[in-house]
Every structure is written in structure tokens, then in C-alpha cells.
## 1
Amino acid sequence: MVEELLIRNGVVYDPINGVNGEKKDICIRDGKVVEEVRNPKVIDAEGRVVMPGGVDIHAHIAGGKVNAGRLFRPEDGRKGREAKTKVCRAQSGYSVPNTFATGYRYAKMGYTFVMEAAMPPLAARHTHEEMVDIPILDNAAMPLIDNNWMTMDYVKSGDTDLLAAYIAWMVKATKGYGVKVVNPGGTEAWAWAKNCDLNDAVPYFDVTPAEIVKSLAVANEKFEMPHSIHVHGNMLGHPGNYKVTTSTYDLVKGITPYRDRPTMHATHTQFHSYGGTTWRDFESKAGAIADYVNKNEHVSIDLGSVILGDTTTMTADGPMEYSLYQITGRKWTNHDVELETGSGITPFLYSGKVSVHTIQWAIGQELALLIKDPWKLALTTDHPNAGPFIGYPIIISMLMSKRRRDESAADMHKVIYDRAELPSIDREYDLYEIAIITRGMTAKTLGLHEHGKGHLGVGADADVAIYDMSPEEHDAGKIQKAFLNTKYTIKGGEVVVKDGEVVAAPAGRTFFVTPECDSKLMEEMLVDLKAKFEHYYSVSFNNYPVQDAYVPNPYEIKAPWRS
Amino acid sequence: MQTIRLKLKEEITSGNAKIPIDVDSLTPDKLFGKNEAEIKAVKVWWGNREENTGDLFDVSVEGEAGSVEEVKIVMEGDLSRVKHIGDGMKAGEIEAIGDVDMHCGAMMTGGKITVRGNADCWAGREMRGGELIIEGDAGDNLCAMYRGEMTGMTGGKVTVGGNAGECAGQYMAGGEILIKGNTSILTGLNMKGGKITIEGDAVMPGADMTGGEITVKGKVLDMMPSFRFVGTTTIEGEEYKKYIGDLAMTEKRAKGVLYVR
């Protein structure tokens, strides 16, 4: 039987296809957007806002550290508990929700794709197991490749072809999506109880973070990779780090991307836009970062915008988590992943009464408002580091309403008027721009628009969000409410959310990239890699790659070698 | 005054597997204004099934209540697997006749609960106000925080006629606890406010405390070495040694006071 659906009279925002608030019908057949339908079920979207399913470019939703976060925060697990229903399994958690709640809550916000932003390669199986357990959402995960001993050896020898071969092997072995970089060199240095600034030598390996970033960008572009390297830079969360941030951006200037996209995606930029020298004279440098992004085309960013309240910070950036723990004195856990990476976790409370948190809160929004072209930025909270993803509608309402920002600022630490720019910015986002930073830009930057995500053109996946609001709505509270719970979310042509309730929870698909590499080059690289396994790994080479069974709903994207 | 009698039916707990019953929906504030038939229809969880109160309890209502303060619930029968008695209650009175299961009086903000028997673990957990009287013994984590939270009891008054288990008053920030018997290890662990009085003996009281006051009228076994003796003081005509601590939490934060006879 052919399943047909017609979404009638919605006001459509589909930035990838240049559709800006046009009243039009969307025809769906067999999970895809089509030209026309004959005998469809009709959904009346009269006067409501219709967008493609949301695409989140960066969130921590599955894997070892997410689960460790759940385990060591039972007090977070008790929040957001919901009993199972006929459709939904039992839910729990707020900043580290369980897998089911993750799927349902994203779907309720109209999201249909989420990128797990940091997969320790050795924990790839665990990550995939959890992603399988996340209902509704299509997903993918980026393996951490930067603090890896193989990577650093090749960076030192300067052999970017062999580095590319290693990337090919690793992305394929982990069923990953691209190259993730987290505090390059710094996480490895943490094993020596040290951290690395951009031009410090990594202990033992004697390469600098700058060299690692540059080499990985060059190697990444040797393939037709859908996504650029995805970088969490050095010195995250340190006052005065904005110069490190722009210097990191400079590293990949001049490297030609394989297609029309940046050569670096710089993630959770809020944490990297800090001025001052200590927490006492801490100030926003969002202006300087925005200025750089405005003038250059080789970098895209996502916000990492702060949601006030309690959350769980978790990152492969081990030394940063330790610094944070020293500030708060709350519980902290740290993990080493053999010769690949590490991680740390600690709870954190963002309070509007604290000057530093107030400035952090302002920076995320300043970045969005000061960067002129919304195609260069994505909405994220670096879930759950700056706040849980469930806070996205708050950020949307702030960006759309100057009044709401002013009202919020009035309740916060007065430092916001001295050391942040936010109160002086008048710009308000419109729905088209919101659609760009939550779907269009993210799908395009990840290269997913070529695979049916983030738009509603003919042939696209029938992932549609219908928000219960009129395009003229200006009340920030109503905007927030509408973006939290859709009128309808449709995933692959199936209604999964209706009137804010999950009505179906089909399994999502896992997208992964297979970089294709010359076999001679691969053989040469494997000699080195097998030696590493022989000498250092706790698992054997043959047992390492994630087998197909871990990805029951696969979507493979091939990335041929560029000749 | 209105008295609502809830007698747990014998057959409910007569089986080999005693399935717990959660009764946080049966507080005076939630039952106020309901007639007998309506009370019988209130949902309670029995294991993983939601049941009608009337299917598990014999329900009878005597008298009228003009306000929630005039509502008294009397629970009878084998209450040893009845959990969350008075959990979150705001006002009124509950009398539980017999031993009760975990979480009795948890999160309560007002009113009064009397347990004529022992209470299992987590009684008075995160209590905010009101009064809880346990005539028998209390289990572990009396008036403590939920796992992982950083604040336990913040207000109200709790009296235990017998002994209390481990970690009574953990992360307590306010309110008063009186334990007439002995306590097991680590009473007032991480305590930051409020007052605990132990008429019997205590083991390692006050570990990691940064505020509040603990008085031990009996013996202290395994006194924490990280407390500093600061002099003697007289309480109710008796002489007590006064200690401050816990210095393991740094000198600056060691604002807890421990009186030992």
C-alpha cells in the first residue's frame, strides 16, 4: 500500500530551497517529499509554521561518558520521570535523559536528526548500542581522532597521506561520520597532568595542537567528506581564550575544501569567546569572534549557548573538566581511553546571579546576533555542557525577541551591562533565520542536505515539523511554547508527534561515512597501526572494528579519494 | 473533624511475594473534599499496576471536614510494604498503625504523621516542614537527601522513639531531629544546618559537616579525629564538651558544632 500524506496550507520555511514563509502544500509518499499525491491523508496546517525536521549538529546523547553521567547523577535521573505509555517507554533525566527520553523530547521539538558529537573510538560499540536505543531520531557520531597516538605520529612525520589513510580506517572501523577534534594534544597531555595551548608541544609526541589541527584538516579534505573537521579547540573555558580561537581558525585558511563548505566547523564557540585574564576581569569577546567569522568563509560555528540552571558537563577535554571541578568542588569523574582520548564529567549550575555565568549566557546569544550571515552558525547548547537540548526553544525565543532578552538581562547580574554587548544589540531573528540555524545550515554543513535531510525539496526525506504558531507571533512565551512541543512532527512520512504527544516511535537510522582510500596507502598505514595494536591496545586489531550488527538501520555515505 | 480509615485488605499482603503499594496519592490534602466513593476511586500503584484505593483498602469516612487541617487519615493493617505514606503532604494528619515501609513523610511540607511502629529507610527524606513522629525505630537515611542531591531535610520536626539507622540527617540543612535511642554510623553526614539530638549513643557523628548542630547525650563511638575541642558548655544542667568540625572540609568551612557529654 502506498502511504500518502498531504500537509495543506502551512506557512513553509525551507531555507535550503529558498522558501521563506510561503503558503504551500507538502506532498509525501513513502517517506519522501514528492511533487503530487493522489489519495492522501490530509493534515491541515492552515496558518501554522512548517519547517523541515530539525538537524542538530552537535550534542552528546549517546556513549560512554553520557552513560557515566547518568550513572553518577541519580539526582538528575529523578527529574523528568514519565511512566511508560502504549507508545513510549519509561523516561527519566533532565540534563542526561535516558535514550528514550532523548528521542521523544527531540521529536517533540521538531528535530529528526542529531549528531552525537564525540565518540571515543574504543567505545564506538557502546555509542552505537545507545543510538540504536534512541527512538525516532536519525543519528550519526563523530569519532575522536585528534589525541590519538597514530595521528600524532603522522603529524610529526608530516605524512598527511598516511594520516588520511588512518582517518579512512578509523571512520570506517567506528562507523563514524567524520573527524572530531577535542582539545587537540591537550587531552593526551592530561595523561601527564598537563594541558596544551595551541603552540605548546604535546609531551612525548613533540607536535603542537596547531600542527594536529592543520594536518587533520588537510587529510580530511583528501576525501569527498560530507563534513569538515569538527573542532573543539584548545583552552576551552579559559579567560582570554578568544585569541587562541581565532588563531585556530587561521590554521585552516587556504586549505581548499572538496565542496562548497567551510574547512573547519568550530563547535560550542561560546566557551571559546572569552576575554579578560582571570575570572575577575572576565568579559565577552563575542564581537571579536563574530568579526572574524563575518570576514572569512572557511569557518562555521555553533553557539553552545547557555541555559540557566543545573546541568552535567561532559567532554573528552579532561583537563578542562578538572579545572571546572576545582571551581565548584562538586563531584567529578575522569576517564582515560588508552591511546585515543579521555574524558571528564562534573555537574554545573549556571546562575544568573553569578557574574561569570551571566557573561557566558550573553556570549552565546551575542554570537548569534553579531554574526551577520546565519548560514555560518548553528543553534546548539553543546548539550548538556552549556545546558540541556530541551532549552533550545528558550534560545529561539531570546533570539527572536529583544524584549525578552532585556527582561531576562534585568534579572541577571548587572555585569551584563558592563562586560557584555548583548543589551545594546537590537537585532531580532525571523523564522527564516531560525530555520537556517536549526536545519538549513546544519544539514548543509554536515553534507546531509544531499541525503534528504534539512529541507523539503522533492526527493527529500519527509521529515516535517509543524509548529502551533502563526508566522506573525511576537510573544516570546508563545514562541518558546510552540518550539517546545510541535503540533505535528513527521519523520520519514510517519506522524510521530501530534499535539505535543509522541504517537509513534519508529527506529531511526544511523548515517555513517566510508572514506575510500588507495589500497597501497592503506597497507602501508596498517603496518604502523598493527604495531600499535600489538604493543599498546588492550584489544586486538581484528576485534576492533564495529561490525554491521551494531548498525541495524544503516545509511552509508561514500567519500571517494580526491584525485 | 473527619477521619478517613484505610485498612489494608489482608489478602493484599498474604501472598508469598509482598508487592509494595505506593500511597503518595493518599494524603489529607489530596483526599480533602472527597466522599467515600471518590476516595475508593483514587489511583495507587501496586507494584507496576495502577489500582483503585478501594480495591486494596477497606475505606470508611466519619465526620465532615471544613478544611484540610481537619482531615485525619488512619492507616491500618499490615503496612510493612506500604511506601510513601504522607509523601509530599501539605497539611492535615496521618496516623499509621504498625510498621511502615520506605519514604514515609518524604518531601512533606506540613501537617503531622504519627507512625505507631517502625519506619523503614528514607523516612522524612527531604522534608520541608511539618511533624513526623516515629514511635519505634527508623531505618537508614532518616531525613537525608535523595541519592546525589546536596540538600536533605530543610525544615520541620522529627521524633524517633527508638533507634535510627545509618546516615540520619545526611546533607540536612534545617529543621530538628530528636532520636531517643541510638544511631548507627555517620549521623549528620555532610550536614550544613539544623539540629540533631541523640539521647543514646552515636557512631562517627558529624563527618564532613559544615554547619548545624549535633548533640549526643550518650556515648560517641569512633569520634571523628577531624573535630576540634573548643571548651565545655552546659545544656539543661549537664556539662557537655563542645567540638567544631569537620576540619576535613577545610578550616574555613568547618562550621558544624558537636556537643558530647
Note: Chain A has a mean pLDDT of 97.
## 2
Amino acid sequence: MSNDIQLHDCRNAFAKTLEALAEADERIVSVCNDSIGSSKLGDFRSKWPERLINVGIAEQTLVGAGAGLANSGLVPFVCGASCFLTGRSLEQIKADIVYSNANVKLCGISSGVAYGELGPTHHSIEDLAWTRPLAGLDIFVPVDDVETAAVIRYVAQNDHPTFVRLSRMGVPRLLPEDYEFQPGKAQILREGKDITLIGCGVTVCRAMDAAEQLASEGIEARVVNFPSISPLDEETIIQCAQETKHLLTIEEHSVRGGMGSAIAEVVVSKAPCKMKLLGFPAFAPTGSAEWLLDHFGMSVGGIVDSAKALLK
Amino acid sequence: MIRKPLGPDELAEQCCQMRKTIIQTIGNANMGHIGGDLSVIDILGTLYFNVLQVNPEDPIAPDRDRFILSKGHCAVALYTAMAYAGYFPVEEMSTFVQPQSRLNGHPCNEKLPGVETSTGPLGHGLPVGVGAAIGAKIQKKPWQVYVVVGDGEIQEGSNWEAAMTAAYKKLDNLTLIIDRNRLQQGDRTDDVTSLEPLTERFKSFGWDSLEVDGHDYGALIEALKAPRVESKPRCLVANTFKGKGVSFIQDRVEWHHKVPSPEQVEEALNELERGV
């Protein structure tokens, strides 16, 4: 990516949108596990100290108390590093939030390999696989700052249990400012007939650059932003599978159980086609997020190579 | 509560009837946690028929008291208390764990209005209760939160996370009742991971913590209604017997979830009838 493109930390859009919503709706509270800084909740705390509930380093109580706050009539946004929020509290997410249908918005901060250098204990490349079987849980992965704000506005106005997977890595803005988020809808960002590149979150901008490079080599790649992991946009998956006959999924997640797996489940039963999943095959080594994505074939060149191999 | 609170003598009669329903329900279903059901039923009876400000005809009224049975495996005791309180007909107890019944082996709030949160995995009720109590404080609501846990369940670390949070947040609208029957599934608690000194542990965590006889209705009413110590959550360590009221079940480890035979059901009902 060229250096003159402005990159956005989606956490800022998250925090500003949450504050705007909290200004208008006093039922909105935020809950965190000592993660005020990393969740960008400092301004929220300054404005409404009584509405920022910091339970300390106690993720089971973080999520359980979120369910109780919802039971009391409030709308809690429960924020924590995604690896701990989902991994440590998975049974609370299952029983207290989803099975109990509690109106809690789980906000997984610094998901994927945002904490690349800190190693696999802090990588959150399993969170989609852990949460995806929980039917009734909305799962969204916004692609940029615009979609982050749109997703947060959307989740605040419904009463569904929700997991929003937020990135920390800077991303370029890909969507227009008037974009409105629709659950269960993917967007075709670039048309193409030879292959479809499907990404979510931080990988979409790489897919866009890869499509540009593929075009220079005479390959027309379609690019799809796939923010809604649950509910799933089966229609777009089937359409792309049938029209381009090749699907390449790219995700900042394990290849076991994430976005690519969700798409493959549809493809295999409803529109079989050639398909490859890019992502992390196992615990990843230490390294920056950028380096890790590049290392595991999710650089622009890596995506181009996988696309060409799939087309052979 | 829409009815006049029951006093100790009336509670004794009511809980005796509920014990019979528990035994019949488990006998019919061939499933249930009879030991814990019989240890906790006097606590549940006292709550539903004397303490809780709830309306079974409007089970999710915003300003109701919140009651959470964290030891969800004792669902039969909860359902029995709710049925007698008027949440649903007592006859429906015969559907317990039948296909498509809303009376699951563990309580589900989405199926049965009046259940506050689905429980079953242990150590979940207190954190949820802490959240509800914080929510009441934020919204300046007067309603109270009550959580009942099993004593073995206290071995789950999530309780101690929540216990710290409750004290720090000064949740004097939260009451935890520990069904201290001293038995867990496989053994006596003292022979697994001892909980003692249980009352003192909660005190050291900043709670107003005291012991009460969990089968003494007058003592339970007094403890549950005693003036609050300002800014402190309250813990009642309710000393009970697993299987209370049936001589061949009471205080025996093997009756955690053993099901009585038809003859044993008859014997238990007769014993309760005679008031042994």
C-alpha cells in the first residue's frame, strides 16, 4: 500500500460512536476488564464515570455481569481484548448471553494478530470459531472506520446478543461515509468474473490491491467485503461461486472455523466450486501483525499467487 | 408479591407439600437432583412466599426483585416453588424433562418467564447477580437481587471474582445465600476442597456475612429481612441437609442425583405425611 493513504484505527470510530449513542441513550453502559485504554474508553469514563463498569481482570464476571446489567434494563457494551473476552469467558457467552438471549454487545478489541509480537496467548485467531456455533449470536467484523461506526449504531438499536470483532491495525477507508450497515449482507467492492476474493476486516484492503495487480495480468477478480459472519449472506456466496467458479477467502483468523469455513459450509452444500482458504494454519510465530499476514500468504503478492494457483 | 407473606408455620406446611411434589416429579421423570432439591426448598419457599417482591402474573415487570438459582441442577425445586407461587400450574410439573417441555433439566429463562437467567454450568449466577445489582444502583432502582448457590459450587473461581466486585461496588442490594449442605456430587465438601472458614472468607472479602439455619423459616425470614449493613453485600451461609425431610436420603452422598424407586417414593411421601 502506498504511504499517502490515510490509515484508520477502528477503535477510534468505535469509541466515538459509542459515546454519541450513550449521549442520546442513558441505558447504554460500557463494561471492561481493566481495558479502558486499549478499548479507548477513557473519554467515556470522563463523561459518565458511573456508567463505565470496570470489573477488574475478571473475564467471567465481565461477561456474566454484562448479562446481569442487561437483565436490569441497561444496554451493556462489554469490551475486552478479544482473546480473553471470548476464550476466558466462552461458557458465560454461551449460557449467560446467547442461551439466555441477553441484550449484550460483546466488543472484542485487538482481535486477530493485532498483538502479533506478544505471541499466540494474545493472538485472537480462534474467536470466530469459538463463537460461530452459538446460534442467535450476531457476529460482525467491520472493514474500516465507516463500517465500525455503522455496525455499532446498528447493534445499539436492536436487542440481539452480538459479538463485534474489532481490529487494531490501521486500515484505509473503503466505504462511503453514508454507508449503512445491513446484517447478513456482503458487499461486492469490485466486480470481476474470473475469481472472487472474499475478506473481512483488515484483509479486505489487501484483497483490493491484489485484484488491481491481477487485473494488470489479465485476471478479473471480484472483491467481496464479508462483515456479517452471522447471519451469513448465503445469496452472495452462491452468486459468486456460480458466476466466478473460484473463491479465495482471506482472513486474519485460523483457517479452522472462521469466515472461510463458514463460506465453505455453504459452498460445499449449495454451490460447489474451486476454493482455497487463506488464514493461519496453526499457532503463529511472534512478529508484527503486518509481518504475520504477509508470512502466511496474505500479502498482496501472496493473495495474487494463491489466486493464480487456484485458477490453474 | 401479590399475596400476603406466609409466616413460619404456613411456610412449614407449604414446604412440606412442595417436598412431596419434588419427590413425585423426580420419581415420575426418573431424573433429578433430589438431594439438593430437598436441601434448598426451604430457602426457595421462604424467598417466594415471604421475601421476593415479584408478581407471577407479570413475571418480567421491570421493578421486580431478581432471584437467580445458580445451582441450576436443582431445577425441580425452583419449578416447584414457582408453580406453587402461581407462575404455572402445578400439574405441569409432570412434563419435567419430557420432550419439548419448557421444564428443562436446568432452568431456561427464554422458555419459562420468571427465570431470570439460564443456569446449569456452576459459578454463573453470582456474576450475573452482581451485574443486575450494579444495574439497579445505576438506575437508582429499589429492587433487590438474591442469588442462591450450592456450597460445592463455591469452588468455582468465578464466584470469588464476583465476590470481590460486589464488595468493591458496595452492592448492599445483593444477597447471596449459600445452600451449605456439606455434600457435593462425589463426596463431602470437606473431603474434596474444604470451603471453611466459609462465613469468615466472605467477611474478609468485605461482605456482611452470617450463618443461618437453612431449614428454620423464622430464622431465614429474619436474616433475609434484617436491616442492611450500609454499602455491603450480604452473604447468608444457610446450614442445610442434603435430602432434608426424608430419612433414607438425608445427608447421604449417594443421593445427589439418585432416583427413588416407586416404593421409595411411596415411603418418602408417607414419611413426609407423618411429619417424621
Note: The longest strand of chain A covers residues 246-254.
